[in-house]
Design a protein that fits this description.
Blueprint (H helix, E strand, L loop, with lengths): L7 H4 L6 H7 L5 H17 L5 H8 L3 H13 L3 E5 L4 E4 L2 H7 L8 H14 L7 H12 L5 H15 L5 H13 L5 H24 L8 H13 L4 H7 L11 H12 L6 H25 L5 H14 L2 H14 L6 H14 L5 H24 L8 H13 L3 H10 L7 H14 L5 H10 L12 E2 L4 E2 L5 H5 L5 H7 L3
Helix pairs in contact: 3-5, 4-5, 7-9, 8-10, 9-11, 11-12, 13-15, 15-17, 16-18, 17-18, 18-25, 19-21, 20-22, 21-22, 21-23
Length: 493
């Protein structure tokens, strides 16, 4: 008896046939190759009973992976299981298996039948290698798909990818089928029809983007997400392609961003998406119109929250009115966006419902400002009308005074010390108490009244008019604030 030096286990070499490298290595998974080399090493140097758990520990793998690898090499004919208890295998020469060909497959009749069926699917159009057959059979033995379903998968790949498709690509589909529990031929038929729709839909998108080629897996995965997860129909996706014209080289990633934005809305059909995109285009146009009226340069993304708050209050026409008013009467451009929003809020609080109400209100403000300027000229006052001034004018109107008597009262206030407007208000209040309503009556009163009578007295509440006369400081009265938005914001001070 001649024993082997145990140091050979460490310092020896492992003979691996060239046939294994050329015929078996290319089609095998890396872990399967590791298991084969370990099994070959075990047979030549360890010469002990095969221990799956120990092999898994030595290779850093799971026992189930070891068993799957051994079944794979059994199907390839390089290993034969001799017994279950104890577990014993026999390794064959790769050269010998290659020379004998399919004769070594007799150990697995199901595998032989499966291989014949795969060969028949390709016929003479493509020569399928033994490694490809073995890989496809893994989807039966390891993934757990029925052989009939796997043959349907291969047929589907031939019809959609062409006869020269890669089996590794089909393996991904097989895994998806397993994950979705697609096992029966009926389920597989539905699955493949859906796959075909995804492929055709992806190709249609590519044509809309001006690309004439076959879709990639990543592109089909994106299309599947759009129609399966986000529930867009094909027409909706194709209509969204029109938005990609802004991009120099439109891509699926750019289209994904568009659909991601739309996915949070109710648009799902082609018409709904078209309508949504039309609305978005109109919104951008309306936003630019408001920014143009404001004469400010603000990024649309920054302006959009302000614009949305404005449109929540009023339609576009009223927003543009407010923008025009603020642009005309607001000095700093930086504040115009905020002032426009504030003006709209003030109009809303005043109960102005639509453009008609706003225009009528602005016309009323303009009319009061015009008269107030005339009164200021009469009293030699160099200010601009304010909201408080217009409030005061309204109170005079409520007393029943016309323009003529107001002009006369302004003349009487020309030489007043301090606030001329306050002096005029006291004069008119006094006339109102004495039932003086016309300019002629006022002139007569001025001629006969004792000195100081016209400016005597304190501000009083006008009975029946719901108007409480207000004390104003000189600073308030003299400030130059001829702004429609200020009238709205300060009216209730």
């Amino acid at each position: 008896m001649i024993d082997t030096d145990q140091k050979m286990n460490i310092w020896g070499t492992l003979p691996v046939e060239n046939a294994f490298i050329t015929d078996y290595l290319p089609g095998a998974k890396g872990d399967f190759v590791r298991v084969y080399l370990y099994a070959l090493y075990h047979s030549l140097y360890l010469r002990t009973e095969w221990d799956t758990v120990l092999a898994a520990s030595n290779l850093g793998m799971e026992p189930g992976d070891i068993e799957a690898a051994m079944r794979y090499w059994e199907r390839r004919g390089l290993i034969t299981k001799i017994s279950e208890e104890p577990l014993r295998y026999e390794i064959h020469s790769a050269n010998q298996v290659k020379q004998k060909g399919r004769e070594t497959m007799g150990v697995d009749e199901e595998y032989v039948e499966f291989a014949e069926n795969v060969y028949s699917l390709f016929g003479t159009r493509r020569k399928v290698s033994a490694s490809e057959i073995a890989l496809a059979y893994e989807w039966v033995a390891d993934i757990g798909l029925p052989a009939e379903t796997v043959l349907m998968l291969i047929s589907h790949m031939i019809s959609t990818r062409g006869v020269n498709f890669k089996f590794r690509l089909a393996e991904l589909v097989a895994q998806n089928m397993k994950n979705e529990n697609v096992l029966s031929p009926e389920d597989a038929d539905l699955f493949f029809r859906r796959e075909q729709e995804i492929r055709e839909g992806t190709k249609a998108v590519l044509r809309h983007l001006g690309k004439r080629r076959e879709p990639s897996e990543d592109e089909m995965n994106l299309y599947q997400k759009w129609v399966m997860e986000w529930k867009f129909d094909r027409e909706a996706v194709l209509n969204a392609c029109s938005e990609t014209t802004r991009a120099g080289d439109p891509t699926f990633a750019y289209l994904d961003g568009i659909l991601s934005r739309l996915s949070g809305k109710e648009a799902r059909t082609g018409k709904a998406v078209s309508r949504q995109m039309a609305d978005e285009k109109q919104k951008k146009k309306d936003m630019r119109a408001v920014l143009s009226l404001l004469h400010v340069d603000v990024a649309e993304g920054v302006f959009e929250p302000f614009y949305d708050a404005m449109r929540a209050l009023y339609p576009q026409e009223v927003v543009e009115l407010a923008a025009a008013e603020c642009a005309a009467h607001t000095r700093g451009r930086e504040a115009r966006v905020e002032k426009t929003q504030e003006l709209l809020q003030a109009w809303s609080q005043r109960g102005l419902k639509d453009e008609k109400d706003v225009r009528a209100y602005l016309a009323e403000v303009g009319e009061k400002n015009k008269l107030l300027r005339q009164l200021f000229e009469k009293m030699d006052y160099a200010g601009n009308p304010t909201a408080a001034d217009r409030e005061m004018l309204s109170s005079w109107r409520a007393m029943g005074f016309d323009d003529e008597i107001l002009m006369y009262a302004a003349e009487q206030s020309r030489t007043a010390n301090g606030s001329k407007l306050r002096y005029m208000d006291r004069v008119l209040t006094s006339w109102h108490e004495d039932s003086i309503r016309t300019a002629a009556e006022a002139r007569s009163r001025v001629k006969t009244a004792p000195a100081g009578r016209q400016d005597a007295g304190k501000p009083k509440v006008i009975s029946g008019k719901d108007y409480t006369q207000r004390q104003y400081t000189d600073e308030e009265i003299e400030r130059a604030a001829n702004r429609a938005w200020e009238e709205a914001l300060k009216e209730d001070e």
